[in-house]
C-alpha cells in the first residue's frame, strides 16, 4: 500500500490508527483509511506539498459507502466545519476520497484530558456542534453516526474550529410516506450515542450514542442526530455513560439492554449534577416528531444561557488548549502559574 499515487498527485503513506470503518494511516504529508473494506492512510499532495486525508475502499467490496460519502460532501461543500474534498475517483483497485487534513478528534482530546472535560469545554463544543448539525440538516441530510470520533478540530488558524466528518452512513431525509417502507432496515450509527429511535430500528453502529428511537430500529429523523449529540455531551461531562459496560452475549441483546437503560433512567437522573439546560436539551430532542424541524437557535440559547450563568468567558480556550500550554511551559495544570 505504501507509495501508491492517487490521481497522479496524492501519495499514500503509513498507517496511523484505526476507526470504525477502517484503519488510519499517516505519512509525510497524507492520510488514508483501511479495514476489510476501507483503507485510510495519510499521504502527500505532490503538487502543493501539503498534508491531505485519503480514504480508500477496495473495488471488490461494496463501494456504496464511500461513493455516498463523496456525494454528501459535494452537497455540503462550502459549509463551515465541513472538510474540503480535493479528489474522488477510482485508482487501480481502490476508490479514493481525498480531503484536507484536520486535527485530532474529540475522542482523542478527551483521552488527552484524562477522559473528563470541564463544563466550559462541553458547552463550547455544544455551541459549534449544534451549528454543524443544523447546516447538515439544512442541506436535507441526516448524519446518522454522531459520536466523538466524528468531530475533529481544525489545524493552524482553524485550530479552534470544530469539523464534522464521516458521512458514510448519512442519508437524505425521507418523508413520512417513505418512512413506512423503511421500517426494520439495518441499524445505523454508534449505539453508545444512539437516539431511542435508532434503538427501535430507525437507524444505522456505535450503540452507546444512539437516540432512543434509533435503538428501536425505526428510521431516523432530525431529532435523532441532536439527541445523539446530547449523549456525546453527557459522555464528555460525566466521563462515561450509564449504559456503557453492560454485559451481553449478542449485539441484539446489547442493543436491547442499552435501550432499556435509556428508558429506565429519567432525564433528571441522566443529567444529575449538570446545569439544568442539559436535561432540557435531552427532553426537547426526544420530544421531536419524525417531521418536526428542531429549533436550533433555541438549543444554542439554552447552552449559552448555561455558559453565562456559570460565569465563563467566550475565549475559545478549551481544556486541551490549557493543558498543552501548561505542558509546554514545563508544569502541570495543577501547579500555580508564576
From TrEMBL:
Top class in the EC scheme: transferase
SUPFAM superfamilies: Protein kinase-like (PK-like)
InterPro entries: CK1_Ser-Thr_kinase (IPR050235), Kinase-like_dom_sf (IPR011009), Prot_kinase_dom (IPR000719), Ser/Thr_kinase_AS (IPR008271)
Pfam families named among the record's database cross-references: Pkinase (PF00069)
GO molecular function per UniProt: ATP binding; protein serine/threonine kinase activity
CDD domains recorded: STKc_CK1 (cd14016)
EC number, as in UniProt: 2.7.11.1
Residue intervals of the Protein kinase domain: 10-308
Protein name, entry field: non-specific serine/threonine protein kinase
Amino acid at each position: 500500500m505504501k507509495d501508491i499515487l492517487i490521481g497522479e498527485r496524492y501519495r499514500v503513506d503509513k498507517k496511523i490508527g484505526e476507526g470504525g470503518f477502517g484503519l488510519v494511516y499517516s505519512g509525510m504529508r497524507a492520510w488514508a483509511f483501511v479495514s476489510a473494506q476501507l483503507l485510510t492512510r495519510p499521504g502527500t499532495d505532490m503538487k502543493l506539498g501539503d498534508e491531505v486525508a485519503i480514504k480508500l475502499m477496495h473495488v471488490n467490496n461494496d463501494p456504496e459507502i464511500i461513493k455516498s460519502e463523496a456525494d454528501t460532501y459535494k452537497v455540503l461543500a462550502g459549509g463551515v466545519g465541513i472538510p474540503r474534498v480535493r479528489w474522488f475517483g477510482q485508482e487501480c483497485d481502490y476508490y479514493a476520497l481525498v480531503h484536507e487534513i484536520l486535527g485530532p478528534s474529540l475522542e482523542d482530546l478527551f483521552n488527552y484530558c484524562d477522559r473528563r472535560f470541564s463544563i466550559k469545554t462541553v458547552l463550547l463544543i455544544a455551541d459549534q456542534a449544534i451549528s454543524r448539525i443544523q447546516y447538515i440538516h439544512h442541506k436535507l441530510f441526516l448524519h446518522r453516526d454522531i459520536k466523538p470520533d466524528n468531530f475533529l478540530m481544525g489545524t493552524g488558524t482553524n485550530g479552534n474550529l470544530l469539523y464534522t466528518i464521516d458521512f458514510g452512513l448519512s442519508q437524505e431525509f425521507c418523508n413520512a410516506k417513505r418512512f413506512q417502507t423503511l421500517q426494520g432496515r439495518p441499524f445505523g450509527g454508534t449505539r453508545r450515542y444512539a437516539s431511542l429511535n435508532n434503538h427501535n430500528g430507525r437507524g444505522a453502529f456505535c450503540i452507546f450514542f444512539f437516540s432512543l428511537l434509533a435503538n428501536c430500529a425505526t428510521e431516523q429523523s432530525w431529532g435523532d442526530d441532536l439527541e445523539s449529540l446530547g449523549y456525546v455531551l453527557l459522555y464528555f461531562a460525566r466521563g462515561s455513560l450509564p449504559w456503557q459496560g453492560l454485559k451481553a452475549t449478542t449485539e441484539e441483546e446489547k442493543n436491547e439492554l442499552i435501550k432499556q437503560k435509556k428508558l429506565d433512567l429519567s432525564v433528571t437522573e441522566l443529567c444529575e449534577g449538570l446545569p439544568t439546560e442539559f436535561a432540557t436539551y435531552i427532553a426537547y430532542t426526544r420530544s421531536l416528531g419524525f417531521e418536526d424541524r428542531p429549533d436550533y437557535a433555541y438549543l444554542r440559547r439554552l447552552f449559552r444561557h448555561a455558559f453565562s450563568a456559570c460565569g465563563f468567558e467566550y475565549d475559545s480556550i478549551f481544556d486541551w488548549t490549557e493543558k498543552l500550554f501548561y505542558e509546554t511551559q514545563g508544569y502541570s495544570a495543577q501547579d500555580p502559574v508564576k
